[in-house]
Amino acid sequence: MKIYTGTGDRGKTSLFSGERVSKADRRVEAYGGVDELNSVLGALAASLGEKQADLAEELRGIQSDLFRVGAWLATTGDGSCEVRLPELGDDHSKRLEKAIDRMQEELPPLRGFILPGGHPSAAWAHVARTVCRRAERHVVGLMEFKKGGSESESLGIVIRHLNRLSDYLFVLARLCNRLQGLADIPWES
Predict the structure, then answer these.
(1) Into how many domains does the chain fold?
(2) Which sign, positive or negative, has the C-alpha torsion 110, 111, 116, 117?
(3) How far apart are the two ends of the chain, measured CA to CA in Å?
(4) What are phi and psi of 119, to 5 degrees?
(5) What CATH number is attached to the domain comprising 62?
(6) For the whole model, what pTM was predicted?
(7) How many C-beta atoms lie closer than 10 Å to residue 16's C-beta?
(8) Which residues contact residue 182 at a Cβ distance below 8 angstroms, ignoring those fewer than 6 apart?
(9) Residue 46 is part of which domain span?
(10) pLDDT by residue for the chain (189 residues), tens digit each?
(11) 1 inside domain
(12) Residue 3 belongs to a domain
């Protein structure tokens, strides 16, 4: 398979469902944000030590979920997509909630705002959290642009998932510092 085709040289790209759209299309912006988040999660997983192999495995599962989200966002009902896309459901958000609860059991209560940073893995988790929030904003923008329709329910599921994922990444950042023997860095107001 050839990596470069030249078909995007004029600012257009093909959706998974076959339509050609501007690379500035809201849908492309949404799945591009999810793709960026997926890459940052890869950097985060790579920054974890051998003792955090379970967390790296959990992140790989989340990355797989994000591929599902990206494929769905890159597909409209308007094209002739013959590929059956993985279903989107709230079960992924529920798994994130369970992981958040599990991690919080290991952490002291949060008493105020904290600064991003500490161990490199915690810093990557904070970067991932902010990229996740931006991807969420792009999906919200797509949903507002679509204003209802058959996609609204699925877009709502994606938004909930990204919202929960950003919470997960915040707690993971705190846990990464804790596992390295570092305390949260309090914000000095």
Answers:
(1) 1
(2) negative
(3) 54
(4) -70, 150
(5) 1.20.1200.10
(6) 0.90
(7) 17
(8) 118, 119, 122
(9) 22-76+89-108+118-182
(10) 778 888 778 888 888 878 898 889 899 999 999 999 999 999 999 999 899 999 999 999 999 999 999 988 988 765 455 555 566 678 889 999 999 999 999 999 998 999 999 999 999 999 999 999 999 999 999 988 877 666 677 788 899 999 999 999 999 999 999 999 999 999 998
(11) no
(12) no
Beta strands 185-186 and 114-115: pairing type? Answer: antiparallel
Please report the DSSP string for 57-76 in residue order.
Answer: HHHHHHHHHHHHHHHHHT--
Tell me if 175 is assigned to some domain: yes
Paired tokens of 133: 């929030």
In a domain, 10, yes or no: no
Residue entry with tokens 């642009």: 145
Burial 77-112 (b: 16+ CB within 10 A, else e): eeeebeeeeeebeeebbebbeebbeebeeeeeeeee
